[in-house]
């Protein structure tokens, strides 16, 4: 499935787009999901005509990018399924990167089985020294970090290289320029963009639907709506620890086996942070997400 139009779903079948409705049983069988189908899902279709059909079954997902849906009822909202990597896009300025929010996106991608690439847009608004200092710890951990400016067309070849021959999802908060970057790597898409608010400096939602787009240089990319808040969908303790590989060498070495890593003496994580062996911001993110 390549795009959701509300009650109608575009499915790519043998190189052509088939407009499909969901079989009634799929609409009723929501279980813990906010929606039974997402962009990237592989489905079985019964054709009604050359370009019309019915989705009979959604096949099991290999990977997904999912969050906790808004509302009082706990539901899983899958943004995109069956992609290889998440390109997590933040801005160097306007709005400046919120490190906790960045770590949440990385953890969400890790929990869904996706590789992670960090792309920092609007690098023309800051100095190289600022970029080196602000994102050094992520490069030290081993994340691939792409520095770009959609406005100045810098770093676009590096982003193309990261996307080439991969199935990727571009994700991040509002106003960081995800759609502008997709337009820059493939100008033929002409995705709609807007400027950030001049008073609040907060991004405005531009992308409303999630579509899988085929890249002319090989691969697919999904552009997702900007998110203002992010709740991880029921991550296990092990899954959350796996999302912080930089902390891994220090787990199990605290003085107390039930260490909360917040105030105890002999906490290996806090000692490592004090020695600059790990970034204290990353430890705070881990704890804010409920890690232990």
Rounded to an integer, what's the Rg over CA atoms? 20 Å
Named CATH topology of the largest domain: Rossmann fold
Query: What is the CATH class of the largest domain?
Result: Alpha Beta
Give the fraction of residues assigned to helices. Answer: 10-25%
What does the main sheet amount to? Answer: 6 strands, mixed
How would you characterize this protein structure?
α2 packs across α8. The chain has 292 residues and is an alpha/beta fold. The chain has 3 domains: 3-60, Nucleic acid-binding proteins (OB fold (Dihydrolipoamide Acetyltransferase, E2P), Beta Barrel); 79-223, P-loop containing nucleotide triphosphate hydrolases (Rossmann fold); 237-288, no CATH class. The two termini are 38 Å apart. The strands form 3 sheets. It has a 6-stranded mixed β-sheet, with helices on both faces. The model is unreliable at 194-207 (pLDDT under 50). The chain is globular and about 70 Å long. It is built from 8 helices and 13 strands. The chain has helices at residues 24-28, 99-111, 128-141, 156-163, 178-185, 237-242, 268-274, 280-288; strands at 3-5, 8-13, 16-22, 43-49, 52-58, 64-68, 76-81, 85-91, 115-121, 144-147, 167-171, 211-214, 220-223.
Could you provide a short overview of the structure?
By secondary structure, the protein is α/β, with parallel strands linked by helices.
């Amino acid at each position: 499935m390549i795009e959701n139009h509300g009650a109608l779903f575009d499915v790519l079948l043998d190189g052509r787009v088939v407009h499909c409705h969901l079989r009634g049983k799929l609409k009723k069988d929501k279980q813990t999901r906010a929606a039974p189908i997402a962009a990237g899902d592989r489905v079985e279709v019964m054709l009604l005509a050359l370009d019309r059909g019915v989705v009979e079954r959604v096949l099991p997902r290999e990977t997904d990018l999912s969050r906790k849906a808004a509302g009082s009822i706990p539901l899983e909202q899958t943004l995109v399924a069956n992609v290889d990597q998440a390109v997590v896009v933040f801005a160097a300025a306007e709005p400046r990167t919120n490190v906790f929010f960045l770590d949440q996106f990385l953890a969400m991608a890790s929990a869904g089985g996706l590789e992670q690439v960090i792309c920092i847009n609007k690098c023309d608004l800051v100095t190289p020294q600022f970029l080196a200092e602000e994102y050094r710890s992520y490069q030290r951990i081993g994340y691939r970090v792409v520095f770009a400016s959609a406005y100045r067309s810098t770093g676009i070849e590096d982003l193309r290289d990261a996307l080439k021959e991969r199935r990727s999802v571009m994700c991040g908060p509002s106003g960081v320029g995800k759609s502008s970057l997709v337009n820059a790597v493939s100008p033929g898409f002409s995705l709609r963009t807007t400027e950030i608010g001049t008073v609040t400096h907060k991004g405005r939602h531009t992308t409303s639907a999630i579509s899988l787009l085929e890249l002319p240089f090989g691969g697919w990319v999904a552009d997702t709506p900007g998110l203002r808040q992010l709740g991880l969908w029921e991550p296990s303790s092990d899954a959350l620890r796996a999302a912080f590989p930089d902390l891994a060498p220090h787990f199990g070495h605290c003085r107390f086996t039930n260490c909360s890593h917040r105030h105890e003496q002999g906490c290996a994580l806090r000692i490592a942070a004090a020695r600059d062996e790990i970034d204290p911001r990353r430890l705070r993110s881990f704890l804010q997400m409920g890690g232990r």
